[in-house]
Here is the input.
Amino acid sequence: MKLTINGKAIKFGDNVDTDVILPGPYLVHTDPNELAKHAMEGLDKKFPEKAADGVIVVGGKNFGCGSSREQAPIALKYSGVKCVLAESFARIFYRNSITIGLPVLVCAGVSSKVKEGDELAVDLQIGKVEDKTSGSVLQATMLPEFIMEVLEDGGLIEHLKRRFETE
Amino acid sequence: MNIIEKILANASGKQEVSPGDIVEANIDVAMTHDLTGPLAIKSFREIGAKKVWDSNKVVIILDHLVPASSVISAGLHKTVRNFAEEQNIKNFYDVGRGGVCHQVMPEKGHVRPGEVIVGSDSHTCTYGAFGAFATGIGSTEMAAVFATGKLWFRVPEVIKVNVRGKFQKLVTAKDLTLNIIGRIGADGAIYKGLEFGGSTIREMSIDGRMVLCNMAVEMGAKVGIIEPDQKTVDYVKARTDKPFNPIKSDTDATYERIVDVDITALEPQVAVPHSVDNVKPVSEVEDVNVDQAFIGSCTNGRLEDLRAAAQILKGKKIAKRIRLIVIPASQEIYLNAINEGLVKTFMDAGATVGNPNCGPCLGGHMGILAQGEACISTSNRNFIGRMGSTKSFVYLASPATVAASAITGKITDPRKAVKG
Here is the structure.
């Protein structure tokens, strides 16, 4: 996957939970594109339309809290979300995002400094978040090397396949 | 080391671990269910794995949409059922054999102190009540566990919560749990462990301890754990012959911080929409009208909960314009509730009693809310749209408070219901 990501910011608040990211009734679907149609439905029914061209989601504290549903980051990824930046993440959502190859970065100050619609450029390797609209630059917490390896392979499945092949 | 560090050190073959260390732990038990299982199975195939690492260590429980609520969910059940057969998984609990996964796991002897247990469900942390390191993971990570029997963990900082004092009458483990969530906050324990101790916890029943550990994830915690004691050992030994190691924290164990809670003056608590840490004493939310009341879920569908609700409902009728849904958490509990006459009490009061499963907790089926409706529920989440319409409202409370509210049709202090 690409290590530099560009996109417009779509902002949400604190404690965005997995029930609003992907409501429970849609968990019966296994097709990622079907899940994507309902991404963020609990907060904004038009989200998939807005995200279609590729966006960066900016959240506050505790993004992705609640259930263990991997379908939540899958819905975001397939709706067009290229990366999620937040003040903090709930741990299962965080792990699931890495697992499915959706980059997630803890970035202090992002929820106050970035405005809705700002053009962002994220460099995953050095954790740099540039707001091209305002000109400000933020430093995100860098991802550990073994997490970067999973992301670079495109997710845990590809990463494990590679591991099994080389073993 | 504290109990969490000791379990992770044991499971990863290390003498000692500290917060921040990344360890690869051997998994003792891996549990999945009908909503996250199919995706785990899909990922398992995509990885190219053929056999699960140990078919005796995998437990599969159908519980979310049970019996199948649609053609799609019937298909999910079929996928999981076929996988269990193909992989020779004996610990498979089909419709009518088990119930809600987090109740069935300990009840059927799949949870033992000192073990590392993962489940593709966030409330897997419930098993911390038995002194196990138990945590929720996603479906693809479950597939990786199925294939390798191992998973990486970051050793968490641990917050110790010491609870002392005696519960007032009709104030329960759920009220304590909601109160603690209100203090710590929905993000107050992200990535961290929570260890619950103190005289109140020692006095609490196994059912009550499970409520506390169940909702650890609502504070962001990786695990909520209670040191095993004689009550734990008695419960576990009655349900499994497998040997286990009741690990406890060292006396000089270190914690990130210690939170002291005295429950002497604690009154019934309610978590108000739309966040679990929006907790108020019942006296501040009395008179809020509700349309539905739900007693059940992995949080509060146990025998102790049903007894508490029946005590309030005995000889009474629920309000005319309200519906009360009661769902025992397992087949065993359901049968006990019938034998004790609890089910008759509920039905005489005007409740509908459903088969063991997750029910309306996550808005799947059996009691979905319409726009503008409010539900008082013993479950664990009051997020927007959790139980149905994105314009509905969920109030979380104890079984006693829910039962009292069902009688009046508005949020009610159970202590008043009993006096009347």
